């Protein structure tokens, strides 16, 4: 395997692991967030959260505000 190929696999693993952590956090907070795509378009990879309904956006805002102590 080439160095670049190894780097790509490492980047993919990192972004997939982060996606799973985020999905688990949303689930434990009671937020249903089905669309989280992984994209390897940048140096670090991206987790695209996609489109959300107003209800999901409000759930996320509530969880974030609670966690931030607001």
Overall pLDDT score: 83
Q: Report the portion of residues in β strands.
A: 5-15%
Give the biggest sheet: 2 strands, antiparallel
Number of strands: 2
Category from helices, strands and their pairing: mainly alpha
The coarse silhouette is elongated
How far is it from the N-terminal to the C-terminal residue, by CA?
Answer: 49 Å
Radius of gyration: 15 Å
Q: What is the string of SSEs from the N terminus onward?
A: HEEH
Tally of helical segments: 2
Annotate the secondary structure layout.
Blueprint: H1 3-28, E1 37-39, E2 46-48, H2 54-67
Antiparallel strand pairs: 1-2
Structure report:
- This protein has 70 residues and is mainly alpha-helical.
- The chain has 2 helices and 2 strands; from the N terminus they run αββα.
- The chain has a two-stranded antiparallel ribbon with strand order 1-2.
- Strand 1 and strand 2 (46-48) form a beta hairpin.
- The longest helix is centred in the N-terminal third of the chain and has 26 residues, at 3-28.
- The radius of gyration is 15 Å and the shape is elongated.
């Amino acid at each position: 395997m080439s160095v670049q190929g190894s780097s790509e696999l490492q980047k993919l693993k990192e972004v997939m692991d982060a996606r799973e952590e985020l999905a688990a956090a949303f689930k434990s907070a009671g937020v249903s967030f089905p669309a989280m795509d992984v994209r390897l378009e940048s140096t670090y990879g991206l987790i695209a959260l996609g489109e959300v309904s107003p209800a999901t956006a409000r759930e996320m805002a509530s969880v974030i505000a609670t966690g931030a102590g607001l």
